[in-house]
Amino acid sequence: MRPILFILYLLIPTVITAQVNYGTPSKGEIPPELKNIPVGIEVMHFPKINDPIKIKDTYYWKHATGILSKNDTVTITEFGAYLYYNDQWNLRKTYKLKELDQFFGTKKQVLPQGQPQVWTKNWRVGNQLYGGWALWYFIGKDSNGKTVCGYATIHTTENLLNK
Fold it and tell me: Is the pTM of this model over 0.70?
């Protein structure tokens, strides 16, 4: 019985990851939850195509994420990230609002008009080397109470920089 359990223990992670099709989203494809919200927040990633480095046994996809509202002050009410796999965007995580202030340097989740806020260490970290797509999104209310959003994709690769 123990040898069978041991073999299953080894095979289950392989079977689970083998069934995932990471794929590439079509240009302009966004999660359905964002489609009917007007864009009022600019979201940028640098670099947009992100290659990893390896330090000891860990891979780091080091990048920065910036947000900016040109038209109005916006109070962020939700933010998070989607991952693209199995031919669709899948919600990875919705963050706690207080984390926006911690990550981006905002105060009380307010994005002042014309003032970029940057999370310089928005890094993907893991012990497996594989590429994929993420979409960061931000939803908020402008000074008139109108709901607006912003989003941007980032492509992480498996092209290791320090071989």
Answer: yes
